[in-house]
Amino acid sequence: MDLTELAGLVEHAFHLPSDLGRARNTVRAYRSDWADFSRWCEQQGRTALPAEPETVCLYLAARAAAGARPSTIRRRLAAIGKVHLAAGHLLPPTRHLSVRRVMAAIEARGPAPVGRRALLAEELRLIVGRLPAGTRAGARDRALLLLGFAGRLRRSELVGLDCEDLEEVESGLRIRVRSGPAGHLGRRIGVAFGPEPETCPVAAVQVWRRAAGIVTGPLFRPVNRHDQVLPRRLDPQSVALVVKRAVRHIGREAEHYAAHSLRSGSAFLEAALGALPDVEGMPGA
Fold first, then answer.
1. For residue range 203-242, what is the model confidence (pLDDT) as tens digits?
2. pLDDT band at 160 (very low <50, low <70, confident <90, very high)
3. CA 60: distance to chain centroid?
4. pTM for the complete prediction?
5. Among 63, 84, 109, where does a domain finish?
6. Which domain holds residue 62?
7. Domain end (from 76, 109, 142)
8. What is the DSSP letter of 195?
9. What are phi and psi of 259, to 5 degrees?
10. Concatenated DSSP letters for 128-180?
């Protein structure tokens, strides 16, 4: 479909009687929404029409991470659906279960905190590829970021992990998560092996433990400027510093990200792909 045909299709999708003032405003908003989706798809090398459900999921998550209001994202989703219906796609990607899950997660979460963006899966994939290789600091940051994202862990939960809280099972890791100031055992989660070795949270933790020589005690520890691992536990505030330092590797503005960026970014991915494996569903549980 060439640009002229696409322009005509959009006009047909959003056509309303010209004497309806409020309707004209809605049409203008829909056209702007479709233009935004089209530009995003072009920048990401993805097809806007017909769009895959995964493309729509990633677009919604990206706009939520950038701070768009749920009502705005819902309207953009409607615009995408209208264009697909006008093009003859009777089952548009906007009706796919994964898209509905992401939209529900966005509405449940509400507007993103001002100045705090979610760290999305594709951004994390770029980051781990650019972290310093062959250093203990790089290995620690890679493990911390990937495990925090995969487990949707709060910063206090992440740094509160001890080696004794991790158990290797056939499908990955079974983890006892500590909560509260006293470090009481809270919930149990399962983190599965990733499909790619470079972004696998289980493999990253294994590499970090070997590099640091950690067998027992705190899992995540400070690394000094001489790349030496210190015996004490990493401070919760250090997680935000790791995230901010990491996003600079891909040209993002660090002030827009914090430790919670890992957790919120994972929430969108989980809504699209389904819940993380429950510990009771993992072999050996």
1. 999 999 999 999 999 999 999 999 999 999 999 989 999 9
2. very high
3. 11
4. 0.60
5. 109
6. 3-109
7. 109
8. S
9. -60, -35
10. HHHSPTTSHHHHHHHHHHHHHHHHT--HHHHHT-BGGGEEEETTEEEEEEEET
